[in-house]
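Morning!

This is the sequence you dropped in the shared folder:
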Amino acid sequence: AGSNQAGVGLGAAGGRTHIYLVLLDYADSASGPYGIYVGMSRYGAAQRFDQHKAGIRAAGPVLKRGLEVLTGPVQHLRYIARAEAARIEEELAEALRAAGLIVKGGH
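The structure's back. Tokens below.
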């Protein structure tokens, strides 16, 4: 499964890590109006978003600018091995940056 492209055949890898995206509010920025936070966690996306907003292991951009979880684009990137998730998280962030989006996280 190590050679899979992002989102192809994952989920059968038997991991516990989820990739998630959060819509960020950059309406007050010249580069806005929106950005994306790319993250990975053993928690589901909605639960991890709530943790960010409550200040629990919070990433600053999500705590300050997080609007909502974007579940659709990464619905297939759940229950994957942590090492694979880390690679996908980084590649997804790079791809979104290359598309011209404001991207935080993805490390």
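Headline: The first helix runs from residue 45 to 54.

More detail when I'm at my desk.
O.
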